[in-house]
Amino acid sequence: MADKFLPLKDKVALITGAAGAIGYAVSRKLLENGCRVAVTDLGGKRLDDFTANLQSIFEENVMGVVLDVTDKKSVATGFGQVIKKWGKIDIVVVNAGVALVANLIDMDIEDFRRLERVNTEGTLLTLAEAGRRFIKQGTGGDIIVMSTKNVPCPGAGFGAYSATKAACHQLGRIASLEFAQYDIRVNMVAPDAVFGEGEYKSGLWQEVGPDRMKARGLDEKQLQEYYQNRNLLKTKVTGEHVANAVLFFATRQTPTTGATIPVDGGLPEATPR
């Protein structure tokens, strides 16, 4: 029997902010398709356990790397560690992000700056390092930026998250313009309401879920049903759905850069206008 076709065989991916629901789904999807994956996040037990979980399934095709996206030196060092081990990087998933619930009139500026450092500066530093490495390799590359439906459709109380992720998204679009000449493609995936994947809860929903539940008088199960019922397809959006969109871009199924795949079940209010 012929071996299963693995479209990402011999490819190497680096994922920022990997140790969570979407990061887990994306990591597994890339690994299942033959990729070697460096899962990066802040150092500690969370990253260690996350890495060990994936290594128990995919063994030497997984490495854990401590990487702080807000620190330029840490980003460069993290990329360097992956290249030292596997000789190259082909795919970068810009996934690190944090959330906050606060109305504008009540928002602490330091809380806003915390999101700006991770969601915006972290994206800039990762895009810049990925671009430099890909250009030096001379082999092209793929960058997938994790955006959000809050870019075209922000929510009240979500000002800091919506604004900093909009900047993240725009940086991805600019990178697509600047990097295309080097055969580096930059595309975005924009999910909505991914609560968890497997044993991993969404960090964003752990942050904002209690407020959303309180505002609507719902428990966690009812809140998930609320978000499911508000989309046109009445579907639960999962981490695997998001990972499928990442895989589409990573496998270059179409000649596309600077584009966005919404993964939200269909939200008319999030349609660009």
Word description of this protein:
- The protein has 273 residues and is α/β, with parallel strands linked by helices.
- Helices cover 47% and strands 15% of the residues.
- It is built from 8 helices and 9 strands.
- The strands form 2 sheets. Strands 3-2-1-4-5-6-9 form a 7-stranded parallel beta sheet, with helices on both faces.
- α4 (109-137) packs parallel to α5.
Low-confidence stretches: none
H/E order of the elements? EHEHEHEHEHEEEHHHE
CATH architecture: 3-Layer(aba) Sandwich
Beta-strand portion reads 15-25%
CATH superfamily: NAD(P)-binding Rossmann-like Domain
**So what's the CATH class?**
Alpha Beta
Can you tell me the overall shape? globular
Average the pLDDT over all residues and give the rounded result.
Answer: 92
Provide keyphrases for this structure.
Rossmann fold, alpha/beta, two-stranded antiparallel ribbon, 273 residues, 7-stranded parallel sheet, 9 strands, 8 helices, 15% strand
Would you kindly provide a brief summary of this structure?
The protein has 273 residues and is α/β, with parallel strands linked by helices.
Task: Explain the layout of strands and helices.
Layout: E1 12-15, H1 21-32, E2 36-41, H2 45-58, E3 62-66, H3 72-86, E4 91-94, H4 109-137, E5 141-146, H5 159-179, E6 184-191, E7 196-197, E8 200-201, H6 203-216, H7 220-230, H8 239-250, E9 260-263
Parallel strand pairs: 1-2, 1-4, 2-3, 4-5, 5-6, 6-9
Antiparallel strand pairs: 7-8
Helix pairs in contact: 1-8, 3-4, 4-5
